Amino acid sequence: MVAVVYENVRQYQANRELQSIVQNVRQLEMRISSFSDSLGTDITATLDNQTAFPVEMRVSEATANGNLNHPWSSSGNTVHLLVEGATSFGIKFTSVPKKSCITLATKLSSGELQGLTSMEVGGTTVAIANLPINVVQAAGMCTSSNANTVKWVFNLRG
């Protein structure tokens, strides 16, 4: 029962952190009309220095260097913010355990994240028209016991 409670807390924390990151990135980038970095560029460290991420995600809360954790990791460097296009960005969680990957893919694909355009789970991209992802689909995409990736892609302007 304790494990279920901890998992629910992690899910809540992940949802809260994702929403915070999306909101902060949009606020920081309001003064521009597009990203100037090329497609695929990891801008995590740059935006961490501008406080785009909640400090509790940092490996060292006092150090803004882009070395970030998601709720299932303590090893660092498991959260990345990527340029996905001139006006879109992706938030990628790596090293996600299978059960958590399935839960993230199903619960955080159902429209509660504003401006979501697509998701990538375990290397499979799912367009917004095909969201939300169900448990069977997610289980087929989350194949590793502890090394899954989940990426959400958002419009810069919401």
If you had to describe this structure to a student in words, what would you say it looks like?
This protein has helices spanning 2-28, 44-48, 98-107, 135-141; strands at 79-85, 88-96, 116-121, 124-127, 148-155. With 158 residues, it is of the alpha+beta class. It has one domain (2-155): TcpA-like pilin (2-Layer Sandwich). Strands 1-2-5-3-4 form a five-stranded antiparallel beta sheet. Helix 3 (98-107) crosses helix 4. The protein is globular, with a radius of gyration of 15 Å. It starts with a helix and ends with a strand.
Features:
alpha+beta; TcpA-like pilin; five-stranded antiparallel beta sheet; 4 helices; 31% helix; 22% strand; globular
Strand portion: 15-25%
According to CATH, what is the class? Answer: Alpha Beta
Structural class: alpha+beta
**Distance between the ends:** 38 Å
Biggest β-sheet description: 5 strands, antiparallel
Low-confidence stretches: none
The pLDDT mean sits at 90
**Percent helix range:** 25-40%
